[in-house]
Specification:
Layout: E1 2-6, H1 11-22, E2 26-31, H2 39-47, E3 54-58, H3 64-74, E4 78-81, H4 95-116, E5 120-126, H5 150-169, E6 173-178, E7 181-182, H6 191-201, E8 204-207, E9 214-215, E10 218-219, H7 220-231, E11 237-242, E12 248-249, H8 250-261, E13 266-269, H9 285-291, H10 299-314
Parallel strand pairs: 1-2, 1-4, 2-3, 4-5, 5-6, 6-11, 7-10, 8-13
Antiparallel strand pairs: 9-12
Helix pairs in contact: 1-7, 3-4, 4-5, 6-8, 8-10
């Protein structure tokens, strides 16, 4: 089928596009190549997607007219919407980026989809919508009415908007709440990349809440597998967690990276940051029931693949 994939130069977007191409789909990639982090890294990801069935358009989803024109011209069978302004901490100082990309951009994706009515629109939500929910593991049936960052609020708004379009226009939509994704080609602002870079350079790593944190780290290949299985199975409206269902203590996570790199880190202990939470933990039973899959890659395996890529990409 023909899949229109926004955020094609992003971390998860590149991996999804590559898997779609490998299985024989046509991919229409969209990305604005935002300078939020290294544009060269994004271009390197796009070079990994060199394929006769991959067609790239540099386009900002906040440009509703241009986005609609592309949808109408391409008439995709399915839409995988992964473009967004990411990052909780960045949203504290740059709210306008989140309004344009995550609110205006998402509304434009919904309107463009309504114009062509693909068989399925799958979009990236986030585990951050759970906010200060203290009941673990987090389930899709939990209340998510109290986001503690603008980023989380925009993702919750996406879910509500998608529900309205599904109800009003019959647009089949599924939101995926991703839990702390890591792996090769990851974002430089995420923990695996930040920790590996600092450890190799001999610089201190910032450890928030003095290390008293847990994250449900999820390997990118598992994210891709779950995402594509969902894409292939349209539902009138759905939301699923995609996480490893195995919370890992932050200090154990760092110790694993140290061991794989063969070098100890210097810790800079910091208090909890605004908008952050102490623990994340995904209940993935709904995903498993719907598509017969739930992430399970062990942390050691995933981080080994990440550190091997990191050393190769950075020649270090």
């Amino acid at each position: 089928m023909k899949v229109l994939l926004t955020g094609a130069a992003g971390f998860i977007g590149m991996h999804c596009a590559r898997r779609l191409l490998e299985r024989g789909d046509e991919v229409v990639g969209v990305d604005n190549l935002s300078p939020y982090y290294s544009v060269e890294l994004k271009r390197a990801r796009l070079r990994e997607l060199s394929h006769r069935a991959f067609h790239f358009h540099q386009l900002d989803i906040a440009d509703g007219e241009a986005l609609r024109a592309l949808f109408v011209a391409e008439r995709p069978d399915a839409v995988l919407h992964l473009a967004a302004q990411a990052g909780v901490r960045y949203s504290l100082d740059h709210p306008e980026s989140y309004v344009q990309s995550n609110l205006v951009g998402f509304a434009n994706v919904l309107e463009a989809s309504r114009a062509v009515m693909p068989r399925h629109l799958v979009y990236a939500s986030s585990s951050s919508v759970y906010g200060k929910n203290t009941k673990l593991p987090w389930s899709e049936t939990d209340r998510v009415d109290h986001p503690i960052s603008l980023y989380a609020a925009t993702k919750k708004a996406n879910e509500l908007s998608a529900h309205a379009y599904s109800h009003l226009f019959g647009l089949k939509t599924t939101g995926l709440r991703f839990f702390t994704v890591y792996g090769p080609w990851g974002r430089p602002d995420m923990s695996a990349f930040l920790f590996a870079r600092a450890i190799i350079d001999g610089k201190p790593i910032q450890v928030f809440n003095h290390g008293d944190m847990q994250r449900d780290f999820t390997y990118v290949d598992d994210i891709v597998e779950g995402t594509l299985r969902v894409l292939d199975k349209p539902a009138p409206y759905a939301i699923y967690n995609i996480g490893n269902h195995t919370p890992v203590a932050l200090l154990d996570y760092i110790a694993t990276i140290e061991r794989l790199l063969g070098k100890k880190a210097t810790y800079d202990m910091q208090p909890m940051q605004p908008g952050d939470v102490k623990a994340t933990y995904a209940d993935t039973s709904a995903l498993a029931a719907a598509v017969g899959f739930a992430p399970s890659t062990p942390l050691e395996t995933g981080l080994q693949r990440f550190t091997q890529w990191f050393r190769t990409y950075h020649r270090c």
